[in-house]
Structures are given as structure tokens and as C-alpha cells.
Amino acid sequence: MIKLTDIIGDQQPHHLREGLELLFQAKIKRSDVIDLSNSNHEITLTMKDALRTYKRGLMTHPSSDDQFTQESKIEFGSLLLSNKTIIIDSNVYAKWSLKTPDCKHIVIDEVNEKNKNLDTFFHICHQLKNHPSHVFIIGGGIVCDIGAFCCAFLDIPFTLVPTTLLAMIDAAIGGKCGVNFEPYGKNQVGLFASANQVYVDIDFLSTLPPREFRSGLAEAYKHYFIDPNAIAFDDIPQNAVDCNKENILKLIEIKKSIVIKDPREKSLRKTLNFGHTFGHALESLLTPSSNPFLHGESVAWGIVFAQFLSSRISKQDTNYLDNAIKDLLSLNLLTNINWILEHWDSKKLFFYIEQDKKNNQDIQVVLYGKPGELLNNQMTESIKYDEMKEYLSRFHQFLLENKQRFL
Ligand SMILES: NC(=O)c1ccc[n+]([C@@H]2O[C@H](COP(=O)([O-])OP(=O)(O)OC[C@H]3O[C@@H](n4cnc5c(N)ncnc54)[C@H](O)[C@@H]3O)[C@@H](O)[C@H]2O)c1
Ligand SMILES: [Zn+2]
């Protein structure tokens, strides 16, 4: 247990950002338990908020009465809203003349990873304070993640209406919500909180730009990899026209069945991080560049890195890597190899990897051999810091040598 007073000394943060900064600077891990007893002074509300949102909540002693077990009801069809508060993505608002009479709209402009941050969170929270009724959140994964975080933080019930493939099959399912916190990386601040309902309307996909659709395919491929018995590779929809209730439901069910068994990511849910160790690091590395990668684009490369590790660690089967590359290329993923090579920075990549999944001197990575078969039958493989640095440099070499395959 780590004493709170050892982390904050006699400081009294007045702003959530300051409280979070103290926890990040102290490099607190998600597995750490914070001892709140014998604090010299009363713990401020701000610090309590920092503790409950840092990496989606730290365990404390005495423990907080946090109960996250709720399961969202998933419904298909289109929604007619009236007299509601709606948080909506500006692109969806512009493209769809939604019949929403008497609704208060909070329109989120410039939806991108740079703006998925605490400023946007505070801006929305401020607007929600005067409208504490049930909120409908309509948009892609970014708007779903931020909107749900605001509602959960303010204890307002909410419904999610995902409008991208990625949000329908992944971001809107399972209760994780939050924002990025620079310079510490992706989704580092947030909560676990399920929507009362998730409303899936496949028609939204008809206006989704093809690049955004492909980004969602990376998560669909991840779901297939985790449970190839639940969906065949050929049933992964290749474009919006291929999407129907059956294949979208199959993909939703894969995630749903995992999060129901392990809502707090103690074990099984970790499999959903497949491809995300390197994927998040690459995404964070490229977010400040003039051509940031989309989440799924980064995850696709993350899956390649994971299979690269599997092939090296198992020393048995390089097909693991080649098969995944072949599949991902057939889904029109693994784009922009030149951009990755131009911006490659092993030190920064390692920094982000360490932030994401650190555990003492090891990095915990989810690795599969073939789809559906965890490597060595283990939920995660421990890789020492030095080994990870070595793998990163060997992967860089692999990309340089195999560049032609990705052009
Ligand atoms: N909470 C989770 O469990 C979870 C899981 C996976 C991903 N995520 C998060 O999801 C985010 C990515 O989500 P995303 O891929 O949906 O991206 P996104 O939210 O950025 O949306 C993609 C783009 O498409 C636009 N858009 C959305 N719906 C549209 C529509 N129907 N028609 C036209 N344009 C539309 C948006 O304005 C945006 O420009 C990442 O931040 C990622 O971390 C969260
Ligand atoms: Zn993801």
C-alpha cells in the first residue's frame, strides 16, 4: 500500500488536472492500493476525483463503494428523440437531419485524438450541469468515450448511439470511458460506467468515410482473432454495404461476452488489449504529427507487432506473423509504412508502452499464436523492459527490410 501523504505531501490540489498530475508524476500503477488512513489533512474532493479517474480508478483503503456491474441493453433500429439532452458529434449532426424536437444539443466540433482531452471533458461537463436528465450520446468512439465519461463523472444516466463501425462493435460496449492525458498517453483518465442502453443503427455507416470504416475493421479483426468460432474471417464486413444486423451482432457479442465475465479487466478482458500495446504507443507517437493515425490503423500495426513477438517467443512458427499480415492487408489495413518509418522513435514508443501496461520491471502483453489460441495458454506474456527495447529495435529492422510488402 502507498500512503496518499507520500504522494501528495502537504499539497492540496485545487483542480482535477493537478491531482492527476501528482499521481502520474509518482508513477502510480493501476495495481497499487492507496492508503487513505492517517492522512494528515482531509482528502479534498478534487483528490478523490483524481483517485477515481486515474487510469479508471485506483483501489483505496478504506475502499470506496464503487459498484460497476451493470450490463447495457443493446437494441437495433433507429431512434426518435424528443425533449432530451443530446451530446452529438458535429459531423453526424451535419450529415443526419435527426428528428430531435425540443432537444438540447451539445455539439462536439473537431472530433479527434488531440481534442479527446480534459479540456473537452470540462467543457461538456459545464454544459451538462444545467441539464441533469438522461443524456443521449451520438457519435463515434471519441464522442462515446468523452460523453460517457462526463455523464458517469456527474452521475447522469446515459444512452450510447454509436455511429461508426468501431464504436458499434467496440467503444460503446463494455463500460470503459475516458480521455487522453498528455504526455502520459491514450485513455489514461476515465471511469468504468455502462450505458443504460446502446442503440445500434447501421444506417449511420452509410455516411462514414471509407478510411474511418477501415479503422473499425482492425477492431473487428481483433474480435475475430480472440474468438474465431464466433465469427468467420469471411463474415467480417468489408464495407458499409456488407454490414447487417447479423454480422454486427456477432462482433458485438464477442466483446459483450468477455466484459460480462470480467468487467474490471482482472483477467479475461485483457485479451481485448490484443494489438493495443504497440498500437496505442504508435497512435500516441503520431498524434502530434501532421498525419495522425486513426485508432484502428494503429491497432492493425499493433497486431502485427504482437504476432512478431509471438513468432519470436515461440520460436516455432513464423506463419503467425505472415498470416496476420496477409489478413490485415486484405482488409486494406497496414497503410502508411513510410510515415511510420519516417517518425520511428524507439525511445518514445517504449515510453508510451511503459505507461500503458507497466508492472514492475515487466510489460504485460496479450499474445496469440493462431486465432483463438493464446500463446502458451497464458492471458498475458511478461516481457522485461530490456527485452522489449530489443524487440522494438528488431521490429523496426523487420519493417525496414519488409517495406515493399506494405506499399
Ligand atoms: N471505450 C472503449 O472500450 C473503446 C474501444 C475501442 C476504441 N475506443 C476509442 O474509440 C476512439 C475511436 O473511435 P472511432 O473510430 O469511432 O473514431 P471517431 O470517434 O473519431 O469518429 C471517426 C470520424 O468519423 C466522424 N463520424 C462519426 N460517425 C459518422 C457518421 N455516421 N458519418 C460520417 N462521419 C462520422 C467523426 O466526426 C470523426 O471525424 C478512440 O479514441 C479509441 O480510443 C474506445
Ligand atoms: Zn481499440
Describe the structure.
- The protein is an alpha/beta fold and 407 residues long.
- It has three domains: 2-61, no CATH class; 73-208, Rossmann fold, CATH 3.40.50.1970; 261-406, Dehydroquinate synthase-like - alpha domain (Dehydroquinate synthase-like, alpha domain, Up-down Bundle), CATH 1.20.1090.10.
- The protein contains 15 helices and 14 strands.
- Strands 4-11-8-7-5-6 form a six-stranded parallel beta sheet. A three-stranded parallel beta sheet has the order 1-2-3. It has a three-stranded antiparallel beta sheet with strand order 12-13-14.
- Strand 7, helix 6 (141-154) and strand 8 (158-162) form a beta-alpha-beta unit.
- The longest helix is centred in the C-terminal third of the chain and has 20 residues, at 295-314.
- The radius of gyration is 21 Å and the shape is globular.
- The model has no long low-confidence stretch (mean pLDDT 92).
- The structure holds nicotinamide-adenine-dinucleotide and zinc ion.
- Nicotinamide-adenine-dinucleotide is lined by residues 89, 91-92, 95, 111, 113, 116, 139-143, 145, 163-164, 166-167, 170-171, 174, 176-177, 186-187, 204, 207-208, 212, 215-216, 219, 295.
- Zinc ion binds at residues 170, 219, 276, 295, 299.
Mean pLDDT: 92
Spatial strand sequence of the major β-sheet:
4-11-8-7-5-6
**Helix tally?**
15
Structurally, how many domains make up the residues? 3
Strand content: 5-15%
What is the CA-atom radius of gyration, in angstroms? 21 Å
Measured distance between first and last alpha carbons: 50 Å
